[in-house]
Amino acid sequence: MLFQLNYKSGKAVYLQLVDQVKAAAASGALHAGSPLPGIRPLAEELRVNRNTVAKAYSALESQGVIETIAGKGCFVRANHSPFKKEVRRKLLAETLDGAVIQAHHLQIDKADFLRVAEERFDALEHKRHAANS
After folding, report:
1. d(CA 71, CA 19)
2. Where in the chain is the domain with CATH 1.10.10.10?
């Protein structure tokens, strides 16, 4: 997996790593059981502190995206969330709250917001289908 960091984005590097792994797993670019690069080699490749990569992997593990197997490394988990449905909905609602606020500031009305959300969902499904073909 190739990571692309943007140091000018204002977003923490570890969060960029988290988002990229989650996107790759959701799109099917990374399948269940796919290994992630080791912390030290990835940190060296990206020229970041090892703790930054470790923090990203820890966040991914706590979110149920990856699992660590002692002595073997980190691997993408099967798409089975460890959270109950109401917790998953709450986490999604928090993310959507930010998107709704952003839409408000960009003067995007509800219909356009929902249309964009549907387009993004369809694009993700298309990527998953392409990755599995």
Report:
1. 25
2. 13-76
**How long is the chain?**
133
Residue 50 CB-density burial (10 A; 0-12 exposed, 13-18 middle, 19+ buried): middle
Q: Tell me the fold of 13-76.
A: Arc Repressor Mutant, subunit A (1.10.10)
At 74, give phi and psi (nearest 5°).
-110, 140
Main-chain dihedrals φ then ψ at residue 38, nearest 5 degrees: -60, 155
Query: Any idea of the CA torsion for 46, 52, 56, 62, to the nearest 10 degrees?
Result: 160
The string of pLDDT tens digits covering residues 9-47 is 999 999 999 999 998 888 888 888 999 999 999 999 999
DSSP one-letter code for 38: P
> What's the pLDDT tens digit per position in 62-72?
988 999 999 99
Query: What's at 106, amino acid-wise?
Result: L
The upper half-sphere exposure of residue 35, i.e. CA atoms within 13 Å in the direction of its Cβ, equals 9
Q: Return the ∠ at Cα 89 (arms to 34 and 104), rounded to 5°.
A: 105
Check: CB of residue 94 under 8 Å from CB of residue 86.
no
